[in-house]
Write a structure and sequence with these properties.
Length: 163
Amino acid sequence: MTRCVLGIDPGREGAVVALRGTAAEAALLPSTDAGLDGRALVATLRSLLGDDDQPYVVVERAQSFPGQGVASSFRYGRDYGRILGVLDALGWPYETVPPAVWHRALVGGDPGDGKARAALVVAQLLPDLELRPGRRKKPHEGIVDAAALAVWGQRRIMQGNQP
């Protein structure tokens, strides 16, 4: 069995990154006008795994943001709950981690002021990962964060700190 760490950045521009060693593959979280599509999420997660993969998932913990409206906060919380529900239903081990924890460990500083720095760190650690899908000029924040979460989780496993 191969250990595959999945990092999931929930949110409107969310993504999931599967990490095996330094080989990484990304997918955007499937959504509809109503929010995250739970059934499509199951298919997306399974498509990122090989037959011999033993998944371990790190999900960025949901939190409200200053200035975020009630409707968007509700949608974000609902989608976050769907992700955790899907992981529970699949029986896959996971942990949630606040953005400040993984960001401080990998990038340094606060998450809000280091998006470009986070993209640079992820690009250095995972040079083959496509951070600009389509015709984007800037790295996709969801992919960057999901990749950083996967790296953070992989390091915890290597240090024997996995719960």
